[in-house]
Write the structure tokens for this entry.
Amino acid sequence: MSLVEINFDGIVGPSHNYSGLSPGNLAATKNAGKVAYPRAAALQGLAKMRHNMELGLVQGFLLPLPRPNAGFLADMAVGAEADPALTAMAWSASSMWTANAATVSPAPDTADGRCHLSVANLVTMPHRSIEWPDTLAQLRVAFGNTDHFAVHGPVPPTFGDEGAANHMRMGTAHGDTCAEIFVYGKAGGPFPARQHEQASRAIARRHGLDPARTLFVEQAPDAIAAGAFHNDVVAVANEHVLFCHEQAFADRQGTYDAVRAMVPGAEIVEVPASAVSLADAIASYLFNAQLLTLPDGAMALVVPGECIETPSVSAWLDAMVKGNGPIRRVLPVDVRQSMANGGGPACLRLRVVADPATIDSRFLLTFEKLESIAAVVDKYWPESIDPADVGTPHLAECIEVARHFLLESQNLKELG
């Protein structure tokens, strides 16, 4: 069986808007009330997928969830006299950030030799807590081959779980047995710590991970307070490389020592606060990048364009590439619509190491399929959404029609 890393990007949904629903996500709250551009957002996401495919990487996708979420509105008894905040929750397109869809443990790491996925409960933010049933249904179609995959429901909502955004995997190669690193929060100043330690430990147990290759690390409270609401805003790992900010972890040296002891040949690429402040790292989403192994074995960092526009970040990246470190290329992409709502290139993707032949092929992208999705987006996605439009019947119908034609174009109508 040929195991490769596949990035499953979320297609930005037609209800993409800026309602500012996530305290602690500084971009989302800063841009609350601004006009959003769903069509441009989706096309930017598709362009990023094309960019990575042109690098020779395997690419998958996940679909936007049904919006507006009529079940949520009914449960909350929202009728004609709509509550604007509850309505906005039901319209949120936040499932586009598939790094929060689930935590994934590939087959080489698990006791039963299957790839395990646990859907995230996302209970900390109300608008995200309603995602998991539809996400779970989609995962069970995409990864429905039970000889190779085990797809689990969420951990109990007593313990918040935000998925792969707080999980890293390190080892010599994607297809080898690796160490899995779970990052949780305990405190974050004015903002909630979204990943609970007990949620991470429950997932490690249900996935059948070897305790000797499993690490639980506390995220630095200062990082959460600064706006790093997930670990992937201050750290990202790929194979033997950990790329992180100096202030990412509560016990910096202890974390590094544990990683080096668990991962043979581990390299830690640390960005010092003296070169790039936490504020600049979070504003530019330097670490919410895709750290990827290219077909020739070199590592590349796919960063948002904001990194190149932030002087301290751009200067550090230039110096890094000129050095002799493990990350050899920096590749900027335009995901500005997602960035304005608090999600960079890494937020938009869920990493799954598997044999592509074991996955439902409808979720694996080809250039032809990419063009068909782009054609639907061009024709049916709203060009713009003002938050004042959220909740209007005409826009609701447009959004539902757009998703219907996307599902039809990809022969996935069972997820309607």
